[in-house]
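Hi P.,

Sorry for the delay on this. The queue was packed all week, but I finally got your sequence through. Input first:
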Amino acid sequence: MGTGSTSTLTLHECKVRASLLLKDLDSPDTARATRAAERMRALPFFAGLPLGQVLARRDTVKHKHGLTVIAREAGHATWALLKQALESVSAPGLDTRVFFQKGPAVFLNRWCATYEEAAASLAAQGGFLFPFRHQYFVCEAGFLQALGIDVKDPDWERLGHDWVRPRDPAAKARLEAKLVALGYGGQHVAG
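Then the structure:
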């Protein structure tokens, strides 16, 4: 179930995955519980134990342990390191928080709690999809133009107007370099 990449994960998704892992571990379904116990062996104190002993100790497993398993599956040694990676995913590159410090307040952006909701909005109504902290927003071309961003750059089409899951990562890298040069870099805004 590990992703090996944090490029499309959110903190919320990781927390949900940890909760699901713990539910699986406590499941009366032996196969589910055993798969979860195998995943728990990513933790040093369970690593050398037979699956039966991991299952026997499942009442000692806390949410923080589940978070650590999810972090390890995503390629990070600890939850704190995964959290740091997810929180700094836009630094030193694009930081969309700067959009709202520099941008005019006359545009209505479509805000979404999940990527799936934002992607559906993008597909249905068009625009440009971006992350913002633990949410997503879809803006119209006018919003970006008001910020001095060239929406006619062919790289927008190449990446599918989706900053989070671009069709063409090279197009995103080129656009990111241009946006950072315009002052939309991650090092310009604190926390």
